[in-house]
């Protein structure tokens, strides 16, 4: 069994979660059983809805907090009728507005606020119980009650002081006690004093053998607990981003990325590291040897794959650009908007569609409004893009660093040329300058305006001077090494 450890997941997940989703599919193809372990608390969402949304199967998902119970990962199926059957008081009034239902109990004055899965269904995700004007409890449901949170008023606010986790039959499995900034857990006679202890206890209960493999995608807060309790299982670390700080590195000292520093210091306990590109693999090997005097095993496995190359079934929209990412500051989607506005002076029918969600969405909407480009620059939201890329003429990216760049891989898999900066590691992997797009050289001395100008110039050059059919053909050729059958073979070689 391959156990993959991560922290959280969301509706607008990061590249790490998408990489895990791709891996799940690849391991299924290789007939290698796998589980994906998430260790964050998800009080406002059912984790299954988010994992299913990104492509995991329910039986592949382990959530730390229900691991010790017999409750399985499941969508919400608990109904209002089931909730009503559990109510001790029968004299109530009921009202509903959208996703929120309210039960008001006449005798006690208490009320239940139920949060439904959607606006129309009778499926209950959580219930908040208020008594004497104070929140006292929240109950969470999938197909049964999974856990409850307990609250007491403190300084005029509802203060969380504990959680109880249940088995399917409603019996208590274990408790979490929260005191100020500290937390401890009681599981039978076992008392665990930190969340790291809880993670370690879970790993110990997995009873791992030499036939098992542990892959850690994020080590923050959980890495040491896993290594201390994984026994004879082989352990691998996935490097999802640039692994060091260039500005903090000289001939004598290297400053590792703080997300990887711990795992890089534990090479004697790590069986392999995985990078997504050969360029990062080679650089890591050189740096480990130079700065640490060590030669750990580093393997290259792309974080994603292409089931097939996607060809357009109708002509691509002329001079149309696509980009897809979290709408986060480091992705610099605002630069792309400004570059396209400038490029329109030379390419009048140019357009840009931006796919994704994130914290910069409002900022981008404001920028589009100020620049008056809403008729040809569009925010498209979060969508499944498998069959979307092939309708566009080219892909653009303004990120200054990509550990791999799943969207870049997907773009060349649909024959798109790419314009982006000459930065590690994704752009350097997927763009052959002048053959399927442009890698724009940049320096630390360049300001934002200069980078936007260069982006705009390369976009204009591509659309007005280059053979787009030849560029597209070169992207298709590069994409062949990322076909699923090729990447599955790499996983088989590593794990079997």
Automatic annotation (TrEMBL):
GO terms for cellular component: cytoplasm; plasma membrane; protein N-acetylglucosaminyltransferase complex. Gene3D superfamilies: Glycogen Phosphorylase B. Required for polymorphic O-glycosylation of the serine-rich repeat protein in this bacteria. Catalyzes the first step in glycosylation by transferring N-acetylglucosamine from UDP-GlcNAc to serine residues in the substrate protein. Part of the accessory SecA2/SecY2 system specifically required to export serine-rich repeat cell wall proteins usually encoded upstream in the same operon. It is a peripheral membrane protein. Transmembrane segments: none annotated. It comes from Agathobacter rectalis (strain ATCC 33656 / DSM 3377 / JCM 17463 / KCTC 5835 / VPI 0990). The keyword Cytoplasm applies. HAMAP family: GtfA (MF_01472). This is UDP-N-acetylglucosamine--peptide N-acetylglucosaminyltransferase GtfA subunit. Its main location: membrane. Pfam families: Glycos_transf_1, GtfA_EBD. Residues 315-456 form the Glycosyl transferase family domain. CDD domains: GT4_GtfA-like. The gene is gtfA. Its EC number is 2.4.1.-. One of its GO terms (molecular function) is nucleotide binding. UDP binds at residues 15-18, 382-383. Pathway: Protein modification; protein glycosylation. Residues 95-187 form the GtfA extended beta-sheet meander domain. Keywords: Cell membrane, Cytoplasm, Glycosyltransferase, Membrane, Nucleotide-binding, Transferase. Forms a heterotetramer with 2 subunits each of GtfA and GtfB. Part of the accessory SecA2/SecY2 protein translocation apparatus. It is found in: Cell membrane; Cytoplasm. N-acetyl-D-glucosamine binds at residues 240, 402-405. InterPro entries: Glyco_trans_1, GtfA, GtfA_EBD. Belongs to the glycosyltransferase group 1 family. Glycosyltransferase 4 subfamily. It catalyses: L-seryl-[protein] + UDP-N-acetyl-alpha-D-glucosamine = 3-O-[N-acetyl-alpha-D-glucosaminyl]-L-seryl-[protein] + UDP + H(+).
């Amino acid at each position: 069994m391959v156990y993959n450890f991560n922290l959280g997941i969301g509706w607008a997940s990061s590249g790490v979660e998408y990489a895990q989703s791709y891996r799940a599919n690849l391991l299924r193809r290789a007939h290698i059983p796998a589980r994906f372990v998430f260790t964050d608390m998800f009080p406002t969402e059912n984790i299954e809805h988010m994992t299913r949304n990104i492509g995991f199967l329910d039986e592949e998902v382990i959530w730390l907090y229900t691991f010790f119970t017999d409750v399985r990962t499941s969508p919400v199926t608990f109904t209002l009728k089931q909730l009503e059957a559990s109510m001790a008081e029968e004299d109530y009034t009921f009202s509903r507005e959208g996703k929120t239902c309210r039960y008001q109990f006449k005798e006690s004055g208490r009320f239940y606020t139920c949060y439904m899965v959607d606006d129309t269904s009778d499926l209950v995700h959580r219930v908040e119980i208020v008594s004497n004007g104070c929140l006292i409890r929240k109950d969470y449901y999938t197909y049964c009650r999974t856990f409850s949170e307990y609250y007491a008023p403190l300084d005029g606010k509802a203060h969380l002081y504990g959680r109880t986790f249940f088995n399917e039959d409603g019996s208590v499995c274990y408790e979490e006690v929260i005191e100020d900034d500290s937390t401890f857990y009681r599981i039978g006679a076992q008392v665990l004093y930190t969340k790291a202890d809880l993670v370690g206890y879970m790993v110990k209960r997995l009873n791992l053998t030499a036939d098992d493999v542990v892959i850690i995608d994020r080590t923050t807060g959980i890495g040491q607990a896993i290594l201390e309790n994984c026994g004879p299982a082989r352990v691998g670390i996935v490097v999802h981003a640039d692994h060091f700080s260039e500005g903090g590195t000289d001939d004598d000292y290297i400053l590792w990325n703080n997300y990887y520093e711990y795992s890089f210091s534990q090479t004697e306990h790590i069986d392999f590291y995985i990078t997504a590109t050969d360029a990062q693999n080679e650089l890591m090997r050189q740096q480990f040897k130079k700065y640490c005097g060590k030669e750990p095993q580093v393997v290259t496995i792309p974080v994603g794959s292409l089931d097939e190359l996607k060809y357009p079934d109708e002509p691509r929209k002329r001079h149309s650009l696509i980009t897809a990412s979290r709408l986060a500051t480091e992705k610099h989607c605002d630069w792309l908007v400004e570059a396209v506005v400038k490029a329109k002076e030379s390419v009048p029918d140019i357009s840009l569609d931006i796919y994704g969600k994130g914290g910069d969405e409002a900022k981008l909407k404001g920028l589009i409004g100020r620049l008056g480009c809403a008729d040809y620059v569009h925010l498209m939201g979060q969508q499944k893009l498998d069959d979307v890329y092939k309708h566009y003429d080219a892909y653009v990216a303004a990120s200054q660093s990509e550990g791999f760049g799943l969207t870049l891989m997907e773009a060349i898999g649909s024959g798109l040329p790419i314009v982006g900066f000459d930065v590690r590691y994704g752009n350097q992997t997927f763009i052959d300058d002048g053959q399927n797009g442009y890698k724009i050289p940049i320096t630390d001395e360049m300001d934002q305006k200069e980078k936007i100008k260069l982006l705009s110039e390369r976009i204009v050059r591509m659309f007005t001077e280059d053979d787009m059919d030849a560029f597209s053909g070169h992207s298709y050729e590069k994409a062949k090494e990322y076909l699923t059958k090729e990447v599955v073979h790499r996983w088989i070689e590593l794990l079997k």
